[in-house]
Write a structure and sequence with these properties.
- The chain is α+β, with helices and mostly antiparallel strands.
- It has one domain: Ribosomal Protein S5, domain 2, CATH 3.30.230.10.
- It contains 3 helices and 4 strands.
- β3 (36-40), α2 (48-69) and β4 (75-80) form a beta-alpha-beta unit.
- α2 (48-69) crosses α3.
- The radius of gyration is 16 Å and the shape is globular.
- The N and C termini lie far apart (49 Å).
- The relative contact order is 0.23.
Length: 127
């Protein structure tokens, strides 16, 4: 996947969070039954070298596991988390297998609250 609209559509689907990544699955994306995947890692994770290494690891996992364990006709997106780069590759594989099985069963995590964490402007009168 390379278009932003596809990533945003996946964000409206099933969400399964793990310590090293967040898996988003849009089950209604592909009527022909094919599977696609996308990987994204924000700049909060580290410099370009670190982000690219994490993306290579995620792509290798997805190429290995999606044909057998991915949801048919769906878009799959992995979002890297800070712990993902330090995690053992075998542990990441186990977590992805668990996340894919939860998504296949339709057991995503509950929706996140829309409330911010104090990043917006201060409320109340200014002094």
């Amino acid at each position: 996947m390379s278009k932003r609209a596809d990533f945003l559509a996946a964000n409206r689907g099933i969400r399964v969070a793990r310590p090293g990544f967040v898996l988003l699955v849009n089950p209604l994306a592909r009527p022909d039954g094919s599977r696609r995947f996308g990987v994204t890692v924000t700049k909060k994770i580290g410099n370009a070298v670190v982000r690219n290494r994490m993306k290579r690891r995620f792509r290798a996992l997805l190429r290995e596991l999606l044909p057998d364990q991915g949801m048919a006709g769906a878009d799959h997106v992995l979002i890297g988390r800070e712990n993902g780069i330090e995690r053992d590759f075998g542990l990441l594989r186990q977590e992805l297998v668990q996340a894919l099985s939860r998504a296949l069963a339709g057991k995503g995590d509950p929706p996140r609250s829309r409330g911010g964490r104090g990043k917006g402007p201060a409320k109340g009168p200014r002094k």
